[in-house]
Amino acid sequence: MNNKVKAWLEDGTIDVFLGYKEVDHHPLPYCFTKERLDEVDDLLLSPARYSLEKIATHMTDEEPDIKIGMLARDCNSRALNVLYLWNQLNPDNVRTVNVNCCPSRLKEHGDCSYLEPETVGAYKRRVGVDNNLALKDVEAYDETERLDRWMYEFQKCIKCYGCRNICPVCFCKECSLEHDELVRTGPLLPDVPVFHMVRAVHMAGRCIDCGLCEAACPMDIPLRLLYQKVNQIVMDLFDYKTGTSVEQPPFSILGDTVTLEPKPIEPLKVINNE
Amino acid sequence: MECKLVPSVCSYCGTGCGVLFEVINGKIVSTLPMKTHPVNEGKLCIKGWNLHEHVNSFMRLKQPLVKTFGRFIKTDWDEAIQLTADRFREIIEKYGPDSIGVLVSAKITNEENYLAQKFARAAIGTNNVDHCARL
Amino acid sequence: MTVKRITFLQELLGLLGLGGRLGLSWISSAEAQKFVQVVTDFTQKIKSLGPNPLSAFPEKRKAAAAGLLLEQSSVMPA
Amino acid sequence: MDKCIACGTCAEKCPKKVDDFYNARLIKRKAIYVPYSQTVPLKYAIDKDNCIYFKNGKCRACEKFCEAGAINFDDQETEITLNVGSLIMAPGFKSFDPSRYDTYSYTALPNVVTSLEFERILSATGPFMGHLARPSDEKEPEKIAWFQCVGSRDMNRCDNGYCSSVCCMYAVKQTVVAREHSKVLLDCSIFFMDMRTHGKDFDRYYENAKKEGVKFIRSRVHSVEALPGTDDLLVRYVDDNGHLEKETFNMVVLSTGLEIDENVIELSKRLRIDLDQYHFTQSDSFHPVATSVPGIYACGAFTGPKDIPQSVMEASAAACAATERLAPARNTETRAVDTPQERDITRESSRIGVFVCNCGINIGGVVRVPEVAEFARTLPNVVYVEENLFTCSQDTQDKMTEVIREKGLNRVVVAACTPRTHEGLFQETLINAGLNKYLFEMANIRNHDSWVHADDPDAATEKAKDLVRMAVAKTDLLSPLQQTDLSITQSALVVGGGVSGMTAALSLAHQGYPVHLIEKSDSLGGNALTLYRAHKGEEVATFVKELVNELESEDLITIHENSTITGVDGFIGNFKSQVTNGVSKEEIAHGVAIFATGAKEYKPDEYLYGKHRAVVTHSEMDQLFQTNAPRLIEARNVAFIQCVGSRNEEHPYCSKVCCTHTVESALEVKRRNPDADIYVFYRDMRTYGTREDLYRKARAEGVLFVRYSKNGKPVVSADGDEVKIEFRDPILNRTLAVQADILCLATAIVSHRDHAMAQFFKVPMDADGWFLEAHQKLRPVDFANDGVFLCGMAHYPKPIDESIAQAQAAASRALTVLAMDTIRVGGIVCSIDAELCSGCLACINVCPYIAISFNDDKQVAEVNEALCKGCGACAATCPSEAPILMGFNNKELYAQIKGALAA
């Protein structure tokens, strides 16, 4: 791996390489360059995950044509696919060294071992949503219970915007969550559940289920479950698997033919809680 | 292209969360929580997340200003320090040292904070010292 | 497209326990009967679902602060 | 009439009930009425023959109740003289009256209805409000039969020898729609002779209906009788195998044909227009909308039975033909409107005026209008409130203009009826008062409020307040929007030098506009060069030659032969196309483009085609006619096989022209070689319209027509110089064989599938490769992409007369653009805030008008105002809220929502 990266840097395949290196006893993201080639020997696969692709987008903001190499776990690759699709990175300018993020249970679905939240306390288990639950268990709660549990979770929100900031596929120049008309500035708790719903809706066709948001949440809100639901609906409705479907983004009319003819509306499946 | 990820400690409060500054071509573009930091374990509050903003803020003071005739006028450090010392002395002479309080900030280092309280107690002679992040 | 987007939102609201409060229907200007039917049905449905449960939440939060959430919540302590 | 606001009070109060002819007498209307809900203008009229006042001199109830004072009993018929340069006849048709078919018991049994009556039954504005019900007991039928060819293809009981062209398709449509309306799985049977679904996508529709379970029974029905003791109907018919069958239905629909009304025949006599034996206009195939009188043109069912798309095309064609000679007089009688200077309000704070309308008693009878007006006064930035009896009346408009000026209003809310009918009027008033017309908003407190909550005045009043609050909240944020004029390149590009392209080019040149005609081959004429005669017997070659000559001598037309288009930029009014002829490149600026790229004959690989000399296609057969080949005279047996490559999996559509072509060719063979035996193997003979005459004549002359099914195709094998055709005779139910010296295959017409062209002009192509028009019925020659038009076989296979009509139609539609000096763009369009755009391309993907493009330099999306229709799809898609839909931006909508929730 190290030799490959060195070779790429030397022959100009890439200008920089994003990987990890130990700094002050912490494994940190590190940008390797041709100028300091021997540092590549210190390249390591960090047990901690950072969104290297987000750093890459910041780099291309400065230098649009820079060629970037990076270590890519499965989640990084999925994020890259999404960023290519939404025109935020040019796939021609990105090279990856794919790493197997072992130990990984279901790598293909991104359900890797990093994504096993800590066991939650008894109180949260009683009144909130256990981060370790499977989506179907959460959906099994009855209507009022669902509402109570989710609102308990959302009300904890301290509006740190960490979920958005850490998100590898959040790239908007100005975030709707900062638009006063949608989410009022000032009040804490944020407009429940508008803040989280808006974010959930914007995750459609973007969320690659990396779990970084949940890991970054100081209040342990089970965001992954929420966005898993988003992904599931996107899959059901648009037949689109975010991060692995590399064709058109789901919210595009191109999937249907572009015409202005009124089309018969296909009956969609009945909403389960009606 | 120069891209560095610089580890640091959040300066907002006394908790001491580990942060990473993403520095591209000499400019801090973003703050990240340090995943392996024992204090915050990859989490931050809204202030920590926006640490880089006050560095880059256009409102940031980069040189001392003196308020003359109701307006702030740019000045140099020597004059500013001299002016401040003169005014402190005037106040102490007139109202006594306890009329002065020192409020220090989380945005400076521990050592600077130590110096600040030393300054308050030894130089000014007051016990009225406090810190914005007194948790 | 719209039908998919709205279904998306319906499903999402469903997860949070707010299902059934969003509807979508195509009614042409010639279909007065259908319009009346759809609006009447939907009004009925919303009425049967009761008032906006979210408006009750600020109170619930206050109650939670006072440690009363368990009693207020439909989720009873185990 | 100016005073009537169509509130409907008069009809409500009118005591006299009259049969409603529009609803096929299935229900009653009043003696004061609107004939049907789509009437323009929407005004009530008194039916003098039935009005009690006109009969007895008493009543005048309508006058008493009309708040608008619009009733005028003294109105007189007036005669108007108009001086016109040409005349277009579009008198339409009359549905055939089936009373004379005594065996169908139409007059005796209420549940035997005509297709037009059934159409009203299915209609939401019809007698049963769109509920499927039969007339006798208004119960929902579970089993319905349709009888085809009632009053068509029938020389026995009526003299309508022609096929009415549209009944097969409308019957299939009625089965599908009826099944949608039905609560039970409706049992539908169609009794037919030949299924003639020859239009674009029609065959697919037919096949789908079959798949969905609609029964198609090839039979002519013997009789309909009442089933004693019920309202049901007993139908007797002979099935395919010759057995007499009986079946019971709840209802029978007679698919009645199209006829020309006696009055129209009368009128034609007065105008000296020659009509044919069926009273359709006499015209040759090359001048489909002309009549025998120069200057008088015809379109629609008057020129022959036809469906909506074809009628719409002909209407445009007639408009084109009728104005060609009048082109020099264009714009000589135009008057310009004077408008005052628009006031700049950008530095003014919001001053909103609210006008609350009583609409007579329409609103005021339910909503407490004074209370609403009082409430409006309390809303922020409202500085003026007024209550009107009729806000839309002319005197109120004048007053409104004055008030806007006097009180310095800079935004206006009218709480009245619907913007659909009245927005334009009020905007006009704003313009007259020197205000930007977009500083206006309507609150619909009539249709949405007083009409639906007539029984609850309290709630209605509260709702009216909510609606006003919402409108005011939005209005407060409105900003003036600008429209700009873009100049237009007043010339056209026509792609394709076939008959369609040449006709379109010539029509535009006659109208005075320069045309560039692009032809990829080295000669003009296209498919027509291979054709022998049109279906009315005219020689095609002579016509093409004349057309080419005329084209070449026309100064305004530049012909580019051997040329192809390599790229297109721009939009309506301002296209730039790169054209190359292999040697040099040229950039052509043009305002519109017409696609006439045609289609081609399918070359089959079945029935020994290309392997045996006896097997030819239609175009090859026409060559034999043109060269008068000795083979034709010597042939003893000539056979035709229909639907070769059509109506199959590969090409699931009907090629439309082949049945007629076969019958024509069969007759031509007979003419030259009367002794030859001729066999036609067909699936459904689709000699629609008056082409049916040719079919009848062919049968009379002894041409044998043998039906085969899709799964029982004839089998062709070589037998020396001849071919042997084995087939299953459906009547004898045995396999027979004939020898043929010439076997002509009626092969499909297939698309060139020119994807490059489609991409250049951003126009869609359907699964079969035909270019897809903007609307199949109502905009048959337009594309959704403005400024690009379509004609000829690029649209769908069609005979030469229909191609010419469509070409004239395309020219006519193109003319609507070319005749303008400028196009107005802007107003309610989108604009993308470059600051917010992160260049994710989502908006570009959802824009149905291809109005958004990506600026690679700035890495942001940009909207072309000329293409944007303001649909808002982009604004709904963008996560960053970068697209701002003018007049409906997020802030305005949020304000409106907050206004709604503020109660």
Describe it for me?
The complex is a heterotetramer of chains A (274), B (135), C (78) and D (903). By secondary structure, chain A is α/β, with parallel strands linked by helices. Chain A folds into 2 domains: 2-98, no CATH class; 117-255, no CATH class. Chain A has helices at residues 2-11, 52-62, 74-85, 122-127, 135-140, 143-155, 162-166, 194-202, 212-216, 223-238; strands spanning 16-23, 26-33, 68-72, 94-98. Chain B folds into 3 domains: 3-56, N-terminal domain of TfIIb (Single Sheet), CATH 2.20.25.90; 62-95, no CATH class; 96-135, no CATH class. Chain B has helices at residues 46-49, 51-56, 77-95, 110-124, and strands at 3-9, 18-24, 27-33, 65-68, 71-74, 102-104, 129-131. Chain B is globular, with a radius of gyration of 19 Å. Chain D folds into 6 domains: 1-77, no CATH class; 94-259, 3-Layer(bba) Sandwich (FAD/NAD(P)-binding domain); 352-479, Rossmann fold (3-Layer(aba) Sandwich); 492-600 and 751-820, FAD/NAD(P)-binding domain, CATH 3.50.50; 601-748, FAD/NAD(P)-binding domain (3-Layer(bba) Sandwich); 827-901, 2-Layer Sandwich (Alpha-Beta Plaits), CATH 3.30.70. Chain D contains 24 helices and 44 strands. In chain D, the strands form 15 sheets. A 5-stranded parallel β-sheet of chain D has the order 7-14-8-9-10. In chain D, a hairpin with a 5-residue loop joins β12 and β13 (244-249). In chain D, α10 (394-407) crosses α11 (419-432) and α14 packs parallel to α21. The two termini of chain D are 40 Å apart. The chains are: A alpha/beta (274), B alpha+beta (135), C mainly alpha (78), D alpha/beta (903). Chains in contact: A-B, A-C, A-D, C-D. At the A-C interface, α4, α6, α8 and α10 of A face α1 and α3 of C.
